[in-house]
## 1
Amino acid sequence: MSVEIAEHRMTELTSDPEGGQLLEISMGPHHPSTHGVFRMNVTLEGERVMRLKPVFGYLHRNHEKIAENASYLASIPYTDRLDYLCSMTNNWGYALSVEKLAGIAVPERAEYIRVIVAELTRLQNHASLIGFLMQDMGASGTPLMYAFREREKILDLFESLTGSRMMCNYMRFGGVRVDTSPEWLDEVRALVGRFPQFLDEYEQLLTENEILMSRTQGVGVLPRELAVNAGVTGPMLRASGVNYDIRKVDGYGVYDRFAFRVPLGEHGDVYDRYMMRALEMRESLKILEQALREIPAGPVIDPKTRLRGLRPKAGEAYGRIESPKGELGFFLISNGTTEPYRYRVRPPSLINLTVLEDMCLGRSVADVVVILGSVDIVLGEVDR
Amino acid sequence: MKAQTINAEQVKAAIEAAVPGCRVELLHNGSPSAQHSLVLDHEHAVEIAHFLRDDAELRLDFCSNVTGVDWLDTEISEKVKTKKLVDGVETEVEEVKKTTVPGRLEAVYHLFSMEMKHGPVIVRLRTGNRTDDVRVPSLTPVWRSAEFQEREVFDLYGVVFEGHPDLRRILMWDEFTDHPMRKDYVAPADDDEPLHAAAGERAR
């Protein structure tokens, strides 16, 4: 198909001359369905969305500026607060970039632990996203509570490992902060063993649910070419049928050692985006099983790694990982001092919103809520 | 299977062959990451971007990251050895030569290929200075993913992207006048004051 389609916005809708007046409404910033403080200026003709402009910045705290005035080590706890549901993967993205910038090697055991905690993060992120999506659709309570029940078990594991449920501050460039105990790994094994049961139960409730299907199938369709051109990443991209998973493409860490599949959607609608999350959780479980089986003994960080007062040679590096929401990248420029000259976060949540208007045009307000829910945004990361 | 890295020199040669008359400068990166970048000239930037995206071998269809960098005026002092006549005898004298590199703003683009699964190719656009010559061509018409990110660079650094469809502030509020990510930005002393003043004005 031609790339020209992707190059231009979808055709602006023209209003029906007999359709009456246009109505401009502001959805948010305080609106339960906007997943935080996020505003959309929506122009409506009746129920039909004619225009939609997202408004950002309510949670902007200039994270990048703070990091440029702090040492390399001091930024790690700040990265926890980007996408506050997935602090582990945020840590990893940042640690990976510093490792690229300064040429730091990571011990094998630490790589396995990173994979384990990152996949646990993916499980709890996807489970809660599905819960939130159902909440947005009007399924008040039940699916979200089921998801939170499982998420809580994972957060308990994080707490016993790192001391904190959500703000884990666990990874360091060169490895991870503390080693896991054998008991902890056994608890993870037990959780991984039980999790498919929850997934079966969850999918039985939702996947072929008639209400879910009628609310999501054919809604918020994102064509493949547009998804690529607009830099959409993560499950949302793969729902549009593009086979691009950075765990496979870059094989960072030790991901190239594990057998897992990349689920792909066909239609690029909200239903496919729901299915991607459901299927990816099963693949995450496969990765977890392999990682837990093969995890080697050894150190988790080289004691000679300079954490405090790290001074990378002048230069720059861009490192990226497949976070549960998409490509999370960190771009660092060092000028040879202890503080990064430039620190940039590539936020998947923000960039995935580029196509929000395209997906919503011509749909109703109720669909906008569902479409936004399927993008999976966290405003801590969108606004930084 | 790991992603193929691309040799920046080869990309430079390919661009120069495809876009006649363009000036591309290879910028060496001294870090172990060895991610070298290409500085593009303004006149041909959009043409080069189209080439990078559509070329059958490169197919850089995915513009992942767009960001700004602020480079202040820097003074580089070098020790230069010159021969001088001292008391009628030619001797070697060491002199400190100071040169000022004028500051500039930079927009950095990280390009990958989803089709060929390779990357990154890093391209940079530079402004003339940091004050009145801050325009660079926008690459949003080539990659939609740059839309919000170029707005962010405009908002936080003050780089003006010519040809951007909707260049407005994105994170700071519309009444804000400065660019907070610039290196010489000074936050107002009373951090509550300007915010409240602006909010009050809007309410009126």
Note: The mean pLDDT of chain B is 83.
## 2
Amino acid sequence: MLYRRQARRYNTYKRKKTMLNPHPGLPEFTYVKLASLDEACGFLVEHAGEARLISGGTDLLVRMRDKAFKPAYVVDIKGLEGTDVLAFDPSSGLKIGAAVPMNRVVAHPDVQKHYPLLAQAAKSVASYQLRNRATIVGNICNASPAGDTLGACLLLGGRLNIYGKDGERFEDLVTFFKGPGKTSLQPGEIVTSINFPLPEKGATGTYLKLGRNKLSDLAIVGVTVYGFPDKMTESGFRIKVALASVAATPLMPPVVETVLSENEITEDTIQEAANASMDACFPIDDVRGSARYRKEMVRNLTRNAITEVWGQLQSRTENGLEANR
Amino acid sequence: MKKTEITFTVNNKTYTLPVKPSETLASLLRERLNLTGTKIGCDEAECGACTVLVNDQPVLSCVYPAARADGKKIITVEGLAKMVHDVMKLHPIQEAFVEHGAVQCGFCIPGQIMTAFALLKRNPDPTQEEVRYALKDTLCRCAGYPMIENAILAAAHTLRTGDPLPLPEIFESIHKQEVVGRKHLRPDAVDKVTGNAVFTDDLKFDDMLYAKVRRAMVPHAILKKLDISKARQLEGVSAVLTAEDIPGEQNHGLVILDWPALIGVGQRVRYVGDAIAIVAAETQEIATRAVQLIDAKFELLPVITNPVQALEEGQPQIHDSGNLLKHIKVRKGDVSQGFEESDIILEHTFHTQTTDHAFMEPECSIAVPLPDGRMEVYVGSQIPYQDRSQIARIMGWDEKRIRIVGQKMGGGFGGKEDIAGQIHATLLADATQRPVKLLYDRHESLIAHPKRHATQIRVKMGAKKDGRFVAVETELYGDTGAYASLGEKVMTRATTHSAGPYDVPHVRNDCYAMYTNNPPAGAFRGFGVTQSAFAVESMMDMLAEKLDIDPIKLRELNALHVGSVTNTGQELDESVGLLECFERLDAEIKKNNPTPFKPVVNPDKPHLVRSWGIAAAYKNTGLGGGAPDFSNADIELFEDGSFEIRSSAAELGQGLVAVMQMIVAEEMSVSPDLVRVLVMDTDLSPDGGPTTASRQTYITGNASRYAAKTLRTAITSFIAEKFDIEPSKIKFKDGTAYVNGHRLSYALIAREMKASGQEPRVVYKYNAPKTQALGTGGDMHFAYSYAVQAAEVEVNTFTGEVSVLNVISANDVGMAINPLGLQGQIEGGVMMGLGHCLTEEFIMEEGQVVTDQLARYRIPGIMLTPNIKSIIIEQPTADGPYGAKGVGEISSIPTTPAITNAIYNAIGVRIDRTPVDQEVISKVLREKIV
């Protein structure tokens, strides 16, 4: 009987339609390096359905071995104009090119100073070797609900710079995700960078990630919290939450923000916000964890993350008051 | 622009090469530049073995498109050591890995070293945490993590300061002699840190073909139709073979011949990994494509997914003999009387999961036909002579027509005892008369080879109020999967050890080893005892709590000691170090904490609760149960004064070669540098028996020792005769014989002996003490090792997460022949036990494998490594070499129950199913609050 229970637990695991013979190997593909965005875009349009962009390639090649993708052409985004830029401008904010590996982002002094939340999230991705190749934009374009950097990018107001056959366009990250692996990108479109506005004054944040026994790099649940003082709110603060691995796309439940804006922040309101966060998500059962466990963990992690961020906000405010006196 | 050529430098050498589609940097380095130091462990960016530096940044070369290397500067492991005046000077990191014993099987080592090299480039003075964070996903299955970490810290110190390399403190055996029992470095370590060590996949032969297996990928079916015509027509395909092409017998197997090399049309498929056709082609890609062109039709049958179901009436029968492989019984006294006499009776059922060995080196075989009709098979195998006989059977050949040429092995742990690709490669090489390489990738390795048995174990325990045991009854079900492999032996060991290392008057154990449609289960470090130790040691703590007795006291009260009779009726007359293990561990654990088994709540973070737990185990050394247990060793003295010792025992990373080298050096009074060791070659080395059951230090160690002793006697009598002197007056020291004030070097002795027509060579067959079959009473095994472990865990009550902070491991090993190697075995054993307890689960769903990638089957990395304190107990066994017993398995067995008992002590949640599921902990905690 116990065996059956175990089997049931796993039967929601996504079954492959037909089990593949072992070692499908890397399908044959041609690596293409083009001189300009324009050419790359043209190539992607011309070979729609059989070409994919490669940024770090850390995920793409693994999935190609799995036969999840079978592109005939792999088009390198590295070297295309603007994709290598990592620049901070004190008046406009941060720009991270699509080909900038995460380690470079983590190590950048301005990122550490102004966007520590982004650095923290990026550092939680896999291994150092992998982060030498993996990119933030790649992480975003994979559109995995478990993507570690997605929450930070959303909460920091990330905006994508997208190049297409009709020229350049911008899209807020908030509207970009359409489902697991699905985005609003049209055929031929290339995300060239992600841009962040200047962080709010006094802002702070944290990313809490729960794996299975700390081992699995994929988050069972990921909670990102970002907060800053805001005189317009009842509580004097604005605190936002983004959730990973608990829905088809990363979630930013507005109700949590509302609870923490419209009420004085206390242990009780934090708990209320945590409960609201739990109620706002709709995870599935899978091999890594049941829906029920995930919901509870969303509550616990949200509570812990808000408490942490709230503590930092308070101490900063106190320090600020001290300084003013 | 599609580039046609790329230019890059590797280790300061510039190359310009044409672009190959789909090529990764790893395969470019390995296949086109023959830089095979870079290893491929998973090919899915999980294990880190393929780490190289590109423009000084470490990257995983298995997911780095080769075309991207254009214009880049690459450094591989081969680029670290420098030649200084024709002498190789190791890089300090390499030297540190050798000196600190961080090298075991060596397969992951290039990746570890390159990761460390990159770390020290960007951070010359890392903390322990920084080292761990940098090596987070560079996996080592021998789990030499503590030694790897120490080596890197030591190398950092040297690189920073120019000081000589800080060396580790290594304990010495209390029974130490001139060589044995003292510090000794593995002879293969230098090759393994420079990337020069050759594993099977590193070999290439002229005109070599690449093979691929078409597997059934359905768990239970009749093969109705098999169409290979399209595959045969594919250009570049040399051969496509099916069951019809098997020249000899169809079945192979280690004990029972029930495993078809290929399933024929009309025959039964019993698991997803069953082979139905094999292909050899000019390239791996063509072979892979050909396999996909093979069309098979199956009539699907109901699937048996677990051993309990397999025994139920009305279930489909997987083999002609039925689903029951074996009903194993152990009887001692009368349990019903025992339970009547008991003051307290407890009963509980436990479950353990299937696990995979996940050795870092996937299986590889290369068969090479010779002009004289013989076949050489290059393979890393735990039982070379059995490979030979199993291949011969399928080929219908005389065994001597085949030569197994053993290669360096990237770990085995029991998973390389069965046939993997050896037979298929031979069939294809014979059909094409060309060398054929059959390499499994990680996916195929996970699907095809035998696993650890999943079990269901019910334990009923009766004791007196004072804690004295009266009766233990156990009932086990073991999932041996589709084929027997070593299932009967494994489950026998699980059964005989199922009452723990305790003296119990009344015992009744029953075990049903069952066939199912899961991948086969066979040998895996611990050999069944891992599973039953979890059940019985959990029960021990449950009993201790009920009786309110200290868990160490309860165990000590019942522990096996000299004079005890085991449940199979063996009277133990020597070398039972269990009580000493308890005593030493008790002192250690209570040094700073008089109540280690009480929960301790973190005052700052009350959701974090710590506690200790303990568990004990014993494990036989050697095959036992009446099986003849022997090894042959062939020793030869050469005219340059060096020795060679040969035996086909297997070196899988555990360190046997070092042990043989030390033993010969000891017996011949010569420096170990002058002793070469040749293993795993069926033409050149005599049968050393299987490398299993923690037996090689004892058996082949003894064979080597007696071979050396015999040679020494022969040399002594030769000198005595030649110089007409009493043999007792001849002394040997430092490779020289001292005779009447004269000094004779071994080189001279060899020449003199040969000149007078004597061969300075001895082949010795060592027969281990006789054992008795189960059920006949008497000595079932000739030696046992004992261990007690304590683990300190921290449980996060918010999430259910468990982390292991400290482990104390006390092992009675008889005698520590190679203390540095022993440390690696003990720490690695603890880590493997920890993985079994916390992270590893081979998941199957209706016979299909869910965990078919390393990303889904997680083995512990360096971040999970606790502080491991080792206590060595050396109660020598009379017939062991210098008193030594086996240690390979015992070090991993008590870890799981020590951790789960600690979890109970921390938060009151009894884990009765492995691996520990944080979700279950969280759920039980929630229910407890409500």
Note: DSSP finds 23 helices and 38 strands in chain B.
